Amino acid sequence: MAQWIVENWFLIVALAAGVGTIAMAIYKFAGLPTPEQVAKIKQWLLLAVTTAEKELGGGTGQIKLRYVYDMFMQRYPVAAKIVSFDTFSVWVDEALENMKRMLKDNKAAAEYVRSGAD
């Protein structure tokens, strides 16, 4: 038996690597956020982008994106490891559109954001 292991060690290592890769793929798939979790994250993102707008003001798009992403990683560490940055960016764009509509329709929210930019 020991002789067989010595002669076929590369096969054993390759098999272990393959099993590990499959296990990681299953783990990542099983860990994907459910639709309810995604909805909660998107609701939270509205608050996050509004806070970023208040703190950083207009014209700071990439800085705000990074600010919100850092907040996301702290708030949802597991989801941050699973959700791609591209997907996250799309979610942030959706939240920004919602924020713009909210600021247009809600004077109190607009005043809240304006008070931080001063």
Give me some keywords for this one.
118 residues, mainly alpha, elongated
The termini sit apart by: 76 Å
Q: What structural class results from the helix and strand content? A: mainly alpha
Helix content: over 70%
The biggest beta sheet reads: none
Low-pLDDT segments: none
Number of DSSP E strands? 0
Radius of gyration (Å):
22 Å
Any idea what the shape is?
elongated
Please, what is the average pLDDT?
86
Description:
By secondary structure, this protein is mainly alpha-helical. It contains 7 helices and no strands. Helix 3 (35-56) crosses helix 6, helix 3 (35-56) packs across helix 7 (107-117) and helix 6 crosses helix 7 (107-117). It starts with a helix and ends with a helix. The model has no long low-confidence stretch (mean pLDDT 86).
